[in-house]
């Protein structure tokens, strides 16, 4: 089973081997990487090589395999899907997704101004 550890900053993969949920297939073996705080990572490759599966493992959705994943608490990181997704609703709902709280109009204008 993959061990997931919350930490303050960055993401670290230590000797991560990931299999499909039923352990039918090994997606990758002994992957180690460190992503510094504030960095961005674009994962590319052919379909079926485990890109989305790696993100599922980092998010704690897939735990079949071995190794350690250290990452900030899920409330502190963002995962972007392969395909754009817009929730039903207003522009305000889109900006505040997934947890729309009571932001003032001025606050929303400020985050939308380049």
Which labels suit this protein?
Rossmann fold, 2 domains, alpha+beta, 4-stranded mixed β-sheet, 114 residues
Total domain modules: 2
What do we call the CATH topology of the largest domain?
Rossmann fold
Q: Can you count the helices?
A: 3
Radius of gyration: 17 Å
Beta strand %: 25-35%
Structural class: alpha+beta
Task: Report the span from N to C terminus.
Answer: 44 Å
Please identify the top-level CATH class of the largest domain: Alpha Beta
CATH architecture of the largest domain: 3-Layer(aba) Sandwich
Describe this structure in words.
The termini are far apart. This protein folds into two domains: 3-76, Rossmann fold, CATH 3.40.50.300; 84-114, no CATH class. The mean pLDDT is 85. The chain is built from three helices and four strands. Strands 1-4-2-3 form a four-stranded mixed sheet, with helices on one face. It is elongated. The protein has helices spanning 51-58, 91-96, 105-112; strands at residues 3-6, 11-19, 26-35, 65-71. The chain is α+β, with helices and mostly antiparallel strands and 114 residues long.
